[in-house]
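Q: Convert this sequence to structure tokens.
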Amino acid sequence: MPRNAVLCARMPGGRHTSAGCVGVVVARWGHFIDGAVASGDTQGRAEVRDPATDEVIAEIDIGGPVEIDRAVAAAKKAFRGWSHTPPGERSAILLRWSQELATRAEEYARVESRQAGKPIRLAREFDIPGTIDNVAFFAGAARNLEGKASAEYSADHTSSIRREPVGVVGSVSPWNYPLQMAAWKILPAVAAGNTIVLKPAENTPLTSVMFAEAAAVAGMPRGVVNVVVGTGVVAGAALLRHSDVDMVSFTGSTRVGRTVLEAAATTIKRVHLELGGKAPFVVFDDADLDAAIHGAVAASLINCGQDCTAATRAIVHRSLHDRFVDGVADLYRVVRIGPTSDPATDLGPLISQAHRERVAGIVERARGYARVVTGGRVPDGFDRGAYYEPTLIASVTPGTEAFTDEIFGPVLTVTPFDDDDAAIAMANDTAYGLAASAWTRDVYRALRATSDIRAGCVWVNDHIPIISEMPHGGLKSSGFGKDMSTYSLDDYTCAHGR
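A:
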């Protein structure tokens, strides 16, 4: 692909109709099946729109069961060879893959920014570097698949335990972090020796296809990594129920996660789920208040709040409550809302007008039982795009919609507490259990919070420090299984006795 291209027209077989386009052109994109870009519009075509401007930036083929069958067949055919490839060779391919991404980092950042409505600074400084690091991490992890040694567990036999890949993995990734979530699905699977068919969200599929192309450039054998663009109800359902898919992995809402479990049960597949969240942000009375205020603003507004680990419920000791509310509100009012192409922009749009209406609806209903301190409206001068102001809601009591439901927007609620027991109880008063943070200078308080708050990850005096070495995954209605880290390899391998 031309190194200066941003969105170049895609044709079957990987050809581009432009020799070096700069900027944005409306281009046709296909899938990536059996080592090459592939056409396939058995379910029609669709448009990818920039949420910041509502401009059409690409036209995509929408596949269904036919394309899923082709991709699964390619993955099944490739499995034996890839699963028997020595770890060192798999590692070398992944390392070249990370290097290929690094050479095209700016291109990936621009495409990710346009399709997902991300400020370009977020894409350049978080999404793309994080993905490159993740690929490099799994290049090393591929050579470190640990297992028990052979031993005489009984008096008259020698036992051997082999750690083997599951087989063909069918994965479905979300729209909020298109490239990173594609990487979180694909990398541990292929590092462990599996092959994969990924169905990205149909409104943000572009960097997922590019990611698979980069794998091929790095020397990934045909059929190991496949991407089929399609809707969840058609292509996703066909993938989840496919008889030749051995495992399914899904990131998205808890509501759809239940459907994934039901679909996987029809053919008894292994399942990995990373679902919704309602992360508590607990500020104890001895916390560094200024740090907590700045941390809450950053953690609640990352990716316009469209992050299942984002801080959504500030639970603040009553002695600090009013100063916390005032401090967050002051910073919210000076957040830079602007074009996603501007490096100075802090906050971009929500993914769509429909999603903005959903977020706004929750905020409007909250006015009946809480206090909207700032925000709660479309910013002036932003008639185009799905922009929404940073919104702070105070006096939110447990059990209300804003406290319990995942809003998935730039909205933070604040609830006071009087003692540590009440803080922990309120933090756990949710169906979700993905992430949380505790803000305190007391090591004993910190240890209690990390132990007693029921979440897959509990940070102390920080929120969302995502790194490749640490496992990411939840409890309760937030799902099960781990992304990232060597612990994710447990989900994509089986222990077999010999």
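The chain has 15 helices and 24 strands.
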